[in-house]
Design a protein that fits this description.
Helices cover 70% and strands 0% of the residues. The chain is mainly α and 92 residues long. It starts with 7 loop residues before the first helix and ends in an 8-residue tail after the last helix. The relative contact order is 0.13.
Length: 92
Amino acid sequence: MTSSYPSLTRALAEALVDVLWFIDGSEDEQMDQDDAVKVMEGIAHMVRTLPNDQRQELIELVGEMAAAETDPARHEFLEEFPKDFGLIDDES
């Protein structure tokens, strides 16, 4: 089986975004909303503490994903991801 991802980093970034997209869109019946917030805040903390070069790499990967996304809602989620998860400042 051949991977469709150019790197492990890309595969993991896409998996992370998929999980966060699911959590962000989940209803109370699917997931406890307090738990959802805890998970999303935990991930935001983790990505904010990445070294600058790794944060920049993630920003670039998410940007590539956004550029290729055809679902308008998911495209917006990807566009806002760097700001929403603390990878960049609101002013950037």
